[in-house]
Amino acid sequence: TTYWNLAQYQDAVPHLHRAIAAYTEALRGCSPSRDGASYGMIQNNLGTAYWNLSQYESPNAMLTLAISAYQIALNYRTAAAMPAAHAATQNNLGTAFWHLVNQPLNDTALEQEYLHQAIAAYHACLNTVRRLEADAPQPLSFDSFATQTNLALVHHKLATAAGSNLSPDARAQHLDAALQHHLAALRGWQDKPEWQQSALQNVVLTIRSCYERSGLEGQTRALSQVPGEWLSEVLMRL
Predict the structure, then answer these.
(1) According to the model, what pLDDT value does residue 124 have?
(2) Shortest CA distance to 203 belongs to which of 152, 157, 167, 137?
(3) pTM of whole model > 0.90?
(4) How far apart are CA 131 and CA 146, in angstroms?
(5) For residue 118, how many other CB atoms are within 10 A of its CB?
(6) How far is CA 109 from CA 12, 58, 105, 116, 174, in A?
């Protein structure tokens, strides 16, 4: 973890390689059957080190390794036993799939599969967050409204991807989902004006996509979902 922190400030690649080596060594000395919580935490941290390294070298390979580590971590960081940790790892997993989609894959079917995997992970994250908020609120290590935004972007990409075999109705459903999640971020970032403006712009871009796909009917349907206090500003930006 010290090497990982150092990588945020200097010599990222060598420090991340050292972090990965240390986490891998730690896993050899940690029994998942006796201390599943620690084992899952180390796997999650290992996944994050691989994810960081993907920004500098071999992105496809590093992201694939990150995904594998996060998936192993989820065997121990379960929603029932460790809900906050489970939500964080699901969020990490969704982001790793999302970043993998944005690599040159040259395979439409594989891209769609990764997008669906990202959606599943982000939904699992948000479902756990909702249960936490209802039952026993506790601090999270991530911004759940950023998760809403990322989930919206995944839905939008599925809806607008060229070469996709999705039906017009399916594309419309994904655009509607994208709009709902962007609106959730818009509402949630009331105390962060700059982020709220970013969410508002995402709402506008999604409504434009609704118009491009479904014409005035699609745009009108989308606009009907925008809260009244934001409607005039959205209309000005369209």
Answers:
(1) 98
(2) 152
(3) yes
(4) 18
(5) 26
(6) 34, 22, 10, 11, 17
Distance CA 183, CA 230 (A): 10
Q: Which residues of the chain have pLDDT under 50?
A: none
Nearest alpha-carbon partner for 177 in 146, 148, 205: 148
- Return d(Cα 111, Cα 203) in angstroms, integer: 24
pLDDT, residue 162, reads 78
Separation of alpha carbons 114 and 60, rounded Å: 12
Tell me how crowded residue 67 is: count the other CB atoms within 10 A of its CB: 22
pLDDT score for 107: 86
Is residue 225 within 8 A of residue 206, CB to CB? The reply is: no
The model's pLDDT over 20-44, given as tens digits with 9 standing for 90+, comes to: 999 999 999 999 999 999 999 999 9
Helix (H), strand (E) counts: the chain: 10, 0
Give long-range contacts, CB 8 A cutoff, 24+ apart: 197-200.
198/149, 199/145, 199/149, 200/230, 200/233, 200/234, 200/237
Residues making up the chain, counted from first to last: 238
